[in-house]
């Protein structure tokens, strides 16, 4: 399935040389499937009940969310080398709703 995303680009005469040449959503889906097929890491047992942030109320509905998040992070690291925890906090974080108190970025 991942090959057909790249085939469409080759048919148009475009040459894919780097990750920056491929659209983000197509790369993330293809690389997540690649990670899943390789089997280098397994999804932990607790992954179906854990939230991805303090600001989230429910866990992700996609059972392969860890592969998708890993593919997204790999793309971010490739495009912006040197990205640290603070940079990922900005990208994947959000406003925490705390009722009548002011919102807090977490």
Oligomer class: single chain
Q: Low-confidence segments, ≥5 residues, pLDDT <50?
A: none
- Through-space gap between termini: 36 Å
- Overall average residue pLDDT: 79
Q: How large is the share of residues in beta strands?
A: under 5%
Radius of gyration: 17 Å
Category from helices, strands and their pairing: mainly alpha
Strand order of the largest sheet: 1-2
What percent of the residues sit in helical stretches (DSSP H or I)? 40-55%
Order of helices and strands: HHHHEE
Largest sheet entry: 2 strands, antiparallel
Number of helical elements:
4
User: What spatial form do the alpha-carbon principal axes imply?
Assistant: globular
Strand segment count: 2
Mind explaining what this structure looks like?
- The chain has 106 residues and is mainly α.
- It has 4 helices and 2 strands; from the N terminus they run ααααββ.
- Strands 1-2 form a two-stranded antiparallel sheet.
- Helix 2 (24-38) crosses helix 3 (65-79).
